[in-house]
Amino acid sequence: MPRSVLTATDPRERLVRRAARALRSGSGVVRVEVPWPEAPEPLAWLAAQTNAETAYWHGRDDGLCRAALGVVHEIAGEDVTARLADAAAALPEGSAYLGGLRFDGAMDPAREWAGFGEGRFVLPRIELVTHGGETTLALHALPGHDTAESLRQSLADVRMDGPALGGSLDFPVARVDRPDRDGWHSAVTDALAAMERGEMEKVVLARRATYRFEEPLDPAALLARLTEAAPRAFHVLLSDGAGRRFLAATPERLVRVDAEAAWTEAVAGTRRRGDGPDARFFHDELAESEKDRREHAFVRDFISEALAPLTSVICVEPPVQIEAARVRHLKTPVRATLREGVTPLEVMTALHPTPAVGGTPTPAALGAIRQLEGFDRGLYAGPVGWVSRDAAEFAVGIRSGLLCGADLALYAGAGIVPGSVPEAEWHETEAKLGGFADALGLEG
User: Fold this and answer.
1) Are 122 and 99 in contact (CB under 8 A)?
2) From first to last of its 444 residues, what are the pLDDT tens digits of the chain?
3) How far apart are CA 384 and CA 193, in angstroms?
4) What is the DSSP secondary structure assignment for residue 255, as one 8-state letter?
5) What is the torsional sign of CA 89, 91, 93, 96?
6) Full residue range of the structural domain in which residue 281 is found
7) What is the distance between the alpha carbons of residues 26 and 44, in angstroms, rounded to a whole number?
8) For residue 57, which phi and psi values (nearest 5 degrees)?
9) Can you say whether residue 79 is alpha, beta or left, with left for phi > 0 and alpha for psi between -120 and 50 degrees?
C-alpha cells in the first residue's frame, strides 16, 4: 500500500511534533502520547499492519491493553534479566518493555525458538494503549538517533484503521503429537517410578501438538479467537523479530508488582469445567480430590517460601476455583508487601518456575523434564509480560502456542504426583488444548 501523508490533525503527526520538541531537550528515552478515542479494536489494528514486529498484552484483571508496533530498543541474548532491570529503571513514566523468558534458561534453544534466545523484551516504537476507559496512541524515540523526519517517515507506514477480524480458519491438513500417546504413557510411568525411588515429589510433564495448515495464519486474528474462547485470561502475543510468534491465553499470573505491593497465586489441580449439572459435579470432585489438594499444596508452599526473604508481610488467602475455556483449577491468591529495595524482577526470578509448571524439588523436576519430554518448551510456561520503571506484571505462558507460518505448535502440561494415571493425565492435557481447538474449529 502507498505511504500515507500525515496531516496536521492526524494523531501520528501530532506525535511527531511532540516528539521533536521532547528530543531537543531530552537525553534518554522519550515517550509522547495523544488521545485517540476513535481508535479501532487493538488486535484488529495490529492485524492491519504490514510491519512484522508486533506485540500485545491484555491484563486479566485490570483491563490494561498494549498493542505494540516496531522496536526502539531490544534486550535479548545473554543476561536478559539484569540488562532489563537496568533499562527499565531508566524508562519514562508510562513506558514498558514487553516480552518473555524461556522456561528453562539452562537449555540451548531449539531452532524454532532461537529468535527468542534466553529471552527477548522490546520497547515498541508505537503503542495503542487502552486502560480505564481511555485510549491513547504513544510513541517512543531516542535522542541522537531519531529525528522528526525519520519518525514521520516510519509512522507514515502505520495503518490507522482496523478491519473487523472474522472469517473461518482452514482445517489443518496434519497434526503431530510429541510425545505421542505411547510416549506419554512411558514418560509418566518413568516419572512415577522416580517418585517411588524418592527422587522427586512432583513433576509437570508437557506435550506439544503441531498443526499444519495449507496457508500461513494471521497471529492477531488467531489471538482474537482465543480471546473469545477464554475471555478471563491474560492475552499475549510476542514476536522473535524474524516472523515467529508466541501467543497465549493464560489464566495464571506469576506476579504483579506495583511499588512495594506484590500479588501472585498458586494455581494447580485441574478438572473439566463442565456445563449445567456437570459443572457442580466437577467442582465438587476437584474440591474433594486428595491428589489435587496435594498437588496444589506443593505450589502454595513453594510460593510462600520463595517470597519469605523478599517480603515483610505475606497474606495467603483461602483457595477458590477458577474456570478457563474447558477446565477449572484450584487457585490460592497470595498478597505480599516487599522489603525496601526489592525489585519486580527479583520477585519474578524467585518465583519461576513454580511447581505448577516445573515440579518439586525444582532441580530434580527440571532434570526429568529435559529427559522425558523430548522437545524444547521455549517460552511455554515461562514468564511473559511487561516491565516498567517501578512496576511489572508477568503471566505464566501456559495455554500457549508458537506460530511459524503455516505451523502452529500448541503446548499443554499436567502435574504428575504419586497416584497419577497416565491415561487420565493425557485427557487432562487434551482438555487444556481444547481452548485452542475451540478457536480453530476443531474437536478437543
Assistant:
1) yes
2) 445 667 778 899 999 999 999 998 877 899 999 999 999 999 999 999 987 799 999 999 998 999 999 999 999 988 999 999 999 999 999 999 999 999 999 999 999 999 999 999 999 999 999 998 899 999 999 998 999 999 998 899 899 988 888 667 778 899 999 999 999 999 999 999 999 999 999 999 999 999 999 999 889 988 998 888 888 899 999 999 999 999 999 989 999 999 999 999 998 888 888 888 888 888 888 888 888 888 888 889 999 999 999 999 999 998 888 777 677 888 999 999 999 999 999 999 999 999 989 999 999 999 999 999 999 999 999 999 999 999 999 999 999 999 999 999 999 999 999 989 999 999 989 888 876 777 766 654
3) 33
4) E
5) negative
6) 174-232+246-377+390-440
7) 33
8) -140, 130
9) left
Measure CA of the first residue to CA of the last residue in the chain; give whole Å.
Answer: 39
CA atoms of 248 and 60, how far apart (whole Å)? 12
Burial string for 268-283 (b: 16+ CB within 10 Å, else e) reads bbbbbbbeeeeeeebb
CATH code for position 290: 3.60.120.10
Residue 133 lies in a domain: no
- Does residue 421 lie within any of the structural domains? yes
> Which three cell numbers mark 20?
521533536
Q: How far apart are CA 225 and CA 231, in angstroms?
A: 10
The answer to whether the beta carbons of residues 111 and 4 sit under 8 Å apart is: no
What is the set of active-site residues?
Answer: 202, 252
Burial of 333 (0-12, 13-18, 19+ CB in 10 A): middle
**Quick check: is 53 in a domain?**
no
- Alpha-carbon distance 220 to 254, whole Å? 24
> What residues pair up with 68 in beta bridges, in sequence order?
55, 127
